[in-house]
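Email to the structure team, subject: ABC transporter substrate-binding protein model.

Hi all, the expression group asked for a predicted structure before they design truncation constructs. Nothing fancy, just the tokens so they can compare against earlier work. One-line instruction: predict ABC transporter substrate-binding protein, return tokens.
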Amino acid sequence: MTHPSTSSSRRWALKACAAGAVLACSVGPALASNWPDKPVTLVVPYSAGGPTDVVARLLAVPMGQSLGQSVLVENTVGAGGTIAPTRVAKSKNDGYTILIHHMGMATAPALYKKLPYDPLKDFEYIGQVLDVPMTLLSRKDFPANNFQELQDYVKKNQDKVSLANAGIGAVSQLCGMLFMHQLGVKLTTIPYKGAGPAMNDLMGGQVDLLCDQTTQTVPVIKDGKRAKVFGVTTSERLSSLPDIPTLNEQGLKGFDVKVWHGMYAPKGTPNEVITKINQALNVALKDATVKARIADLSSDLVSPDKATPEGLRKHLEAEVARWGKVIRETGVTAE
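Reply from the structure team: attached below.
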């Protein structure tokens, strides 16, 4: 026997379909009030154990507790981090498949000629999550000992200097691109299959320079024996590295690169569902365990005004414009 309210809801949905109310047809009016009634999948574009995966798994537990359903992390890797957004963009817009991604969402449109999704049109925004600073390092026996010496050496010997990165489209590549762009030099770039191998070769003396996330570089910097550090990439100094000056204060005006992360849902996901996910995200960002672990990673959870759909939308739009200009001017593409 069909419950009267359910029957009425279905009749309403059919009428809405006939009238062309696409969202009502795809999800039904009863979904938002009952949502979630099964686990939610949080899709990560990168492999297990990486920075984005670590963040996703940290957030999944308190978000699941807040929602009353498990949040399952799914690693969908490949194609420079573009397979996962494609999967989510084409998923049913019912809120059960969502995405966490870093600034690669902003750089992909300029890097890829045939991107199968539009970051600005194919998603609903849930909110920003956190920022991971970066640092500029060199091998231990690199000739320069401070940033001024580094600038002078690189400008005079740019054909001899190598700059490692974690692969095409990786944030380390983008940071390196911006560094070269602002210095007006073109170094020999060497892409690796991940940040780990790039860091190993830097410490081993096989490459000269690397720009990488603090989640990997802080232990190396504090050790003081395996690499030199020339600056942090944020606009302000880091509490975890208070004695390391920013690149901005050393002359690269406006240099500000953070590996920001955001959370997304397929376009057309109901506002009520987005609100519930956003509320769960904000609960997770206040969780003591999450806050302590993020601090250990020398990263920063975003302020409440950024952990909103509007905060993420504005930031993504600005970053698409910013990195699109840099990528076009440097002529680097992933294809």
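The longest strand covers residues 123-132. Residues 309-330 form the longest helix (22 residues). Ping us if the truncation boundaries need rechecking.
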